Amino acid sequence: MEHDWRRAQLSARERALCEFAAKLTHAAAAVGQADVDELREHGLDDAAVSDAIQVISYFNYVTRVADGIGIEDEPEWTSV
User: Fold this and answer.
1) Is the dihedral of CA 43, 47, 51, 57 positive or negative?
2) Is the CA virtual torsion 2, 58, 60, 66 positive or negative?
3) 76 or 45: which carries more pLDDT confidence?
4) Would you tell me how many other CB atoms lie within 10 Å of the CB of residue 20?
5) Helix H segments across 1-80?
6) How far is residue 55 from each of residues 46, 59, 80, measured CA to CA in Å?
7) Model-wide pTM > 0.85
8) Is 80's pLDDT higher than 60?
9) pLDDT tens digit string along 24-70?
10) Residue 53 in contact with residue 24, Cβ under 8 Å?
11) Distances (CA, A) of 42 to 3, 13, 15, 31, 63
């Protein structure tokens, strides 16, 4: 999962969260009610959806700040 979550053995709920995270990261303006409804179908309530959005957004923010100021990846983070 570290390199490609699409190949990992995930539960349907985990896969839905990863799909949502990818969409929020790469096409935030395209995220809508249908995406939230999909998460609800996997047992997430409003608080859990809000938490997911907060965590995904925070990591996107931190990554962009780090990239913007030129912080280098740690050696152990380098993809194989």
Assistant:
1) positive
2) negative
3) 45
4) 21
5) 12-26, 33-41, 46-69
6) 14, 6, 26
7) no
8) no
9) 999 999 999 999 999 999 999 999 999 999 999 999 999 999 999 99
10) yes
11) 24, 5, 10, 17, 28
- Amino acid identity of residue 48, one-letter, is A
Q: How far apart are CA 15 and CA 22, in angstroms?
A: 10
User: What pLDDT, on the 0 to 100 scale, is given for residue 48?
Assistant: 98
- Give the DSSP letter of residue 78: S
In the block, which residue shows the tokens 């996997």?
Answer: 42
